[in-house]
Design goal:
about 350 residues, alpha/beta, Alpha-Beta Plaits, Rossmann fold, 3 domains, four-stranded antiparallel sheet, 11 helices
């Protein structure tokens, strides 16, 4: 055994029969030293400790375990790779910085996107490297610099680690999406939402996706349901380029018509009264397009999938009322809410809300 794999550590020596209880009690006291492997000595276990227990800790150990002894011996270091960025950084950052460390990142193919608070300013490269080290499939880590803005739904991002390549292939529920995260909007946190809406679409429906992006709603719908047709619209030229590419990659050319331009203008010129179902995933501006969605619905009506932001208290009720009021201004009748849900948090006390409404 190489010497660098061994080090001395205070240990709790107790019988194997008490092993699980001992590990649990030591963990509760925050004394377990994860830098070393638990050792064995005949019928006994050697549990490595961060330090010698205090008098109070020793009394608790005695109360819980009764029979054990303290020893300091050579122990084998645990050289396994850290599992999380927190594991990598726990000895590099101050406690208040660790407390501000994001618990997860958005993973889009081989690109990771992280949101870092001001407390971690100046540590971006260190944190980016830690996420790269613990997510082996990632090749680039980006930090969010600002919010999503404009009709094109672009967010300013900055490379903090890795190759800097921002075009990637993302897989979701059996679909494949080519995407450049610096040129188009795509959120892996909406994967369940894409699937949820797609699962509601029936054969022979006409679906109009007013803000289709690279096609996560449209392509899932076209792949899942026979004899359905989706009109997928987006004003972002890069999104439309990737959308056309993704339609070919997923072999749904017959089920999707891609339209480039402003949704309002396109509906008025080509899609009045054609839709059984309208998807409105433009949260910051959705209320402005309710009249467009109602214009696109067939005369008999249909379903609107409405996405917007809502804040506490009672965000669902607020958004339901907002949609009802907006629909009523168009001369349509808002018949009922089919479903409303908190999709994800977007800021403290603020949520992305989904409301499915039946409109006549």
């Amino acid at each position: 055994m190489r010497e660098r794999n061994v080090g001395k550590s205070p240990c709790l020596k107790l019988s194997k029969a008490l092993g699980q209880l001992g590990i649990r009690v030591i963990g509760e006291l925050e004394l377990l030293n994860n830098d070393f492997k638990i050792g064995r000595n005949g019928d006994h276990l050697l549990i490595p400790l961060l330090r010698e227990p205090s008098e109070t800790e020793y009394s608790l150990l005695k109360e819980k375990l009764q029979h054990f002894e303290m020893v300091t011996v050579a122990m084998v270091k645990d050289l396994k790779e850290p599992r999380t960025a927190f594991d990598v950084l726990k000895d590099q950052l101050a406690p208040h910085q660790l407390a501000s460390l994001p618990k997860s990142i958005d993973i889009i193919g081989e690109v990771g996107i992280v949101e870092l608070p001001e407390e971690l300013h100046g540590l971006e490269a260190t944190i980016g490297d830690a996420f790269l080290r613990t997510n082996k499939k990632l090749r680039t880590i980006l930090a969010k610099v600002g919010p999503v803005t404009s009709d094109k739904r672009l967010r300013q991002l900055r490379v903090i680690a890795g190759s800097g390549e921002t075009e990637t292939t993302h897989r979701e529920y059996g679909c494949v999406f080519r995407v450049d995260v610096t040129k188009v909007y795509f959120s892996p946190r909406l994967s369940h939402e894409h699937c949820r809406v797609a699962s509601q679409v029936q054969q022979n429906e006409v679906v109009i996706d007013l803000f289709a992006g690279v096609g996560p709603f449209a392509i899932q719908i076209a792949r899942r349901t026979q004899n359905v047709h989706v009109y997928a619209i987006d004003v972002n030229e890069d999104a439309v380029r990737y959308l056309r590419q993704n339609v070919r990659l997923n072999k749904v050319d017959d089920g999707i018509t891609v339209l480039s331009g402003d949704a309002r203008a396109i509906v008025r010129s080509e899609l009045v009264g054609k839709g059984d179902r309208i998807i409105m995933n433009l949260p910051a501006q959705a209320v402005r397009y309710v009249d467009v969605a109602c214009l696109a619905l067939k005369p008999a009506g249909g379903v609107i999938h409405y996405y917007t932001f809502g804040s506490d208290p009672n965000p669902l009720k607020k958004v339901e009322a907002e949609l009802l009021q907006a629909v009523s201004k168009t001369g349509r009748s808002f018949e009922k809410v089919l479903d409303s849900r908190l999709v994800k948090g977007s800021a403290p006390h603020e949520w992305l809300i989904a409301v499915d409404g039946l409109v006549r």
